[in-house]
# Entry
Amino acid sequence: MKNEKDDFAAFEDVETFEDIETFLSSLIKVYEGSKLNGRNFFNYKQIQLQPKESFFLIDYSKNKLVYSCGFENTWGYSDDEMNLDIVLNNVHPEDKELVYRLGKETVLYAIENPKYCRSNLLSFTYRSLKKNGDYGRYLSQSIILKTDSKGILVKSMVKITDISFIKTPNNVVWEFYSKELDQKKFRERIYEKERKFFTKREWEIISLIKSNLTNAEIAEKLFISANTVATHRKNIMKKSDRHSVTELLAFCKSKGL
# Structure
């Protein structure tokens, strides 16, 4: 039996706006032959928003925003101005790759695992450009609003909360929950590209550096010379463009590694 994901084999990485736009456009064919006239799981129009909250609905079968509310409060746009291009294009350049990848992989997971998709919840923090040209920091929380006759998601509701008042690191922090999800495998799926940034030996050395081992101690554990360890450390710092252990470990953490 054909796996739905086979249709998206070409989208291994979604690094740019064009990548994610093409991926979302390709989803339309998933719904060919499906009945889409089911009910929403809840009445979104009854949601009471707080002053710094907004939300939108995305319909994957149409590849468009079909409803938005409260964006004067968060991004400075009227609800009539809101569209999918604004949502995707305004993500901070340093956050785009991971945000796009999270969007792609959670959508694919829902398609692959329709049985429990109603339990799916994606939460992440990121930076987005406001209408006035400033960047703010936001919490995005996505849940599934509607599925088709096969149980595959059709619409998601995404709630946006302005958390710019919280002084946190700039990297994207995220969590994805779904019933029976293997968290370890899913994180590996998200960070597969980053795992290849360093070689296997370099990862071993970074792990031992994190444990505060000296070059001599690392060499003893890995059965190599201290000079070889020093060479690896030099290459690791050069690759990551970092100049201290503290900076290196912060770099790895920022990449989810």
